[in-house]
Design brief:
9 helices, mainly alpha, MetI-like fold, MetI-like_sf, 72% helix
């Protein structure tokens, strides 16, 4: 009797994480479509006013719609984080594979560079880049990429060294297969799951870093809607409008929770 193989069900945590991220993405992309409005438009007559059809989440201290500002912020921060993770992942993959293949001084130099960057606080590196390109998305992208590539490099190098020493990879080299074939057949299947997990955690780290720097007023500049900047702007009014302050807080928590659950699902 032939056994029928059924597709494996996704882990519950990973499914929940994907669902949370999907809800956040739908709101960020379609929220302004369902309720048209301008995230920069001000009306001091509506300062800290409650929800209404034109602004379902109410207004901030300058009478700007929290619905539209939050939707804009939930597009900006993840976009910067994903760009930084993609850049860091590509750099780490290339340099880690190069270090494992070449060895010798090439590997030692790359390891020393990675260890030197790892010894410095990540936010300090981002602040140094932001001092050169203050308050710009490009500055965040460059600074976060500089911080995150080290983790991808270390994962790729460790995995590639072990995989290249395996009998299957050694046999492929003896049979005359080129490095593209070795990478595609032996290295990438081993590296890909680790890269996905690192990418999810790296995206969460980047979003948290952007929000943290915005909260201490060294990130994106007003009036740009950004999660950390929204928190610091609304913090003085937490007694008068606690729900207004909770809006960016809960949105940030949802993003980080979804990414953490998704990464945990990949890891298992």
């Amino acid at each position: 009797m032939t056994a029928i193989s059924l597709p494996r069900a996704l882990p519950a945590g990973r499914t929940l994480g994907a669902a949370i991220l999907a809800i956040v993405a739908v709101f960020a992309l379609l929220g302004p479509v369902f309720v048209p409005g301008d995230p920069f438009a001000q009306s001091l007559m509506k300062s800290l006013a409650g929800p209404e059809p034109a602004a379902p989440f109410g207004y901030d201290h300058l009478g700007r719609s929290l619905w539209h500002r939050l939707a804009h912020a939930l597009r900006l921060s993840p976009l910067i984080a994903l760009a930084a993770v993609a850049t860091a992942g590509a750099a780490g993959l290339v340099l880690g594979t190069l270090a494992a293949l070449r060895g010798g001084w090439t590997e030692r130099a790359l390891v020393v560079l990675a260890d030197a960057l790892l010894a410095l606080p990540g936010l300090l590196l981002v602040l140094i880049v932001l001092a050169i390109m203050p308050g710009t998305a490009t500055g965040f992208w460059a600074g976060l990429s500089l911080v995150l590539w080290v983790e991808f490099f270390r994962l790729t190098r460790a995995t590639a060294r072990a995989t290249l020493a395996s009998p299957a990879a050694q046999a492929g080299r003896l049979l005359g297969f080129g490095w593209p074939y070795i990478f595609r057949t032996h290295l990438w299947p081993e590296i890909a799951p680790l890269m996905l997990t690192a990418a999810a955690f790296g995206t969460a780290t980047a979003i948290m870093g952007i929000a943290a720097l915005g909260f201490v007023s060294v990130g994106m500049r007003a009036p740009t809607p950004e999660l950390g900047l929204m928190m610091v702007e609304l913090l003085p009014y937490w007694r008068e409008a606690p729900m207004a302050l909770l809006t960016p807080v809960l949105a940030t928590f949802a993003l980080l929770l979804g990414l953490t659950l998704l990464a945990g699902g990949h890891r298992t």
